[in-house]
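Hi all, posting the design record for the shared folder.

TITLE: backbone redesign
STEP: 1 of 1
STRUCTURE INPUT:
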């Protein structure tokens, strides 16, 4: 089986990445490589997968390959915050146990991120700031009242913040009311992603600026990954 990969057109306008200090030179895919495992894509999911593989299988060679520099893709371009509460549609799910599972998963992920940041000294401006859900007009206030009831049903901590107090936080009186929930963290996403990449286990090799343009399934023998300057053979992809 062979699958042709069409690469997206990416620009170089990521402000978070541009704000980083100069990054060290990267290692690219060259020649014929072999690995026990290959992970394609060094975003949050790929970094997590490669890290866990490296921890569980320290005697295996693991290659993590990305078409760009780490943090130039979506994981380094997000809004710069992580939240514990599910979004509104998930909060409206009829099964309370389902919502509690989402909360537990989100909070476990935040705790894991914070642990990695502290263990490896990742300077990403990690800050426990909380979140304000603001309202302006009647429609927004009605939504806020609904949100308040959902939080009460879930037994979650929150605080109503009125216009004057909110203005002290935001610097203007545009919002008439808000709900403050404490479980939100701010960070510099490109700094977080590069920090996670630079602290991978020793048996994980990171290859950047190395787009994989073709994947071939080699029967029961694994996969052949084709790049412009080299190939990787692996049993597990």
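Okay, here is what came back for every position:
SEQUENCE:
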């Amino acid at each position: 089986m062979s699958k042709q990969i069409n690469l997206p057109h990416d620009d170089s306008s990521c402000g978070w990445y541009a704000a980083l200090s100069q990054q060290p030179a990267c290692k690219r895919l060259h020649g014929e490589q072999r690995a026990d495992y290959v992970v394609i894509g060094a975003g949050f999911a790929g970094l997590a997968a490669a890290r866990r593989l490296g921890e569980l299988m320290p005697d295996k060679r693991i290659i993590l390959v990305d078409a760009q520099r780490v943090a130039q893709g979506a994981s380094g371009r997000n809004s710069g915050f992580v939240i514990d509460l599910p979004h509104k549609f998930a909060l409206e799910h009829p099964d309370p146990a389902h919502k509690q599972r989402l909360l537990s998963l989100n909070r476990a992920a935040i705790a894991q991120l914070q642990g990695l940041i502290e263990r490896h000294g990742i300077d990403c401006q990690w800050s426990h700031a909380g979140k304000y859900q603001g309202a302006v007009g009647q429609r927004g206030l009605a939504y806020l009242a609904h949100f308040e009831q959902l939080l009460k049903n879930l037994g979650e901590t929150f605080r109503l913040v009125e216009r004057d107090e909110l203005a002290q936080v935001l610097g203007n009186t545009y919002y008439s009311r808000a709900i403050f929930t404490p479980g939100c963290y701010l960070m510099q996403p490109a700094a977080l992603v590069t920090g996670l990449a630079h602290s991978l286990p020793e048996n994980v090799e990171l290859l950047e600026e190395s787009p994989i343009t073709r994947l071939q399934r080699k029967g029961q023998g694994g996969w052949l990954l084709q790049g412009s300057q080299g190939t990787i053979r692996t049993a597990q992809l």
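COMMENT: DSSP finds seven helices and 13 strands in the chain.
Let me know if anyone wants the other runs.
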